[in-house]
Amino acid sequence: MAYLKQLRLVLWKNALIRKRHWVLTLFEILLPIILFVLVSYSRSKISGIAKQEILDPTYTEPTALRGLQRKLQFTSNVIISFNSEGDLLKEFSKVNQSVIGIIFKTNDTKKLDYDIRLYDPFPRTESDDLFLPDLQYSDTVQNSYFQSGFLTVQTALDLSYIEMMKNGTVPVYLTVQEFPYPPYKSDAGLIQIFMPFLSNITIFSFIFLCPALIMRIVEEKSSGTRVSSKIIFYVKDI
Q: Phi and psi for 59 in degrees, rounded to 5?
């Protein structure tokens, strides 16, 4: 209960200060709002920045998977076979470069069951939100799962198996896209320019608020101390 009384006292004191200095309070409230409105208005009204509707952000070259598929049909020193999964994992522990391991779980040709193991000595960290993004805008999504080659190898294996079982080529057109991925507007990187300014505006809003409030509290305390000293002095004189 003591903490609630202290909180109520602080809120009551703050309300009194705000009531006495209503012009400063109004300025502190309106300043951030006006700045944010100006930024939003400038984004929508600045001439020379044409927003583009991005409806199909990802394009896959159809012949790329075919080239990889043909490449996997030939054995070389790059492709190594192992007798068991344990031998493959043991070899994984010795490599110092990017490799992809494929583990077939069954010898039945009527059922394709496999695992894909990836090893990358320089893993990509998903920490883009911790740092200021580049001003250059990119239409594609930078995703480590998409860039690692996992989807490419998986698609090549599935197509090879289907064509082997059918004994012929399969007319398949593939599109790769992150899901969900709704249509969006490209504003030519303008939002990347405004992002640091918006945070600075918010910080400046609190910078204006806190010193003014602390100054008023100190003034109230000092004036109250002077009044108390005068009362004590008068009582002693009497």
A: -130, 135
Q: Is the dihedral of CA 187, 193, 196, 201 positive or negative?
A: negative
Q: Which of 185, 202, 223 finishes a domain?
A: 185
b/e 109-132 (16+ beta carbons within 10 angstroms → b):
eeebeeeeebeeeeeeeeeeeeee
Q: 51 with 190: CB under 8 angstroms?
A: no
Q: Can you tell me which residue has the tokens 């070259």?
A: 61
Residue whose C-alpha is closest to residue 64's, from 153, 168, 161: 153
Q: Which of 185, 200, 223 is the last residue of a domain?
A: 185
Number of H helices, E strands in the chain: 7, 4
Q: How far is CA 34 from CA 38, 43, 63, 129, 197, in A?
A: 6, 14, 54, 27, 14
Tens digit of each residue's pLDDT (9 = 90 or more) over 38-77: 777 776 776 555 555 655 555 556 665 566 656 566 445 5
- For the question of whether the overall pTM of this predicted structure is more than 0.90, the answer is no
In whole angstroms, give the CA distance from residue 128 to residue 234: 67
| Same domain as 195, residue 140 | no
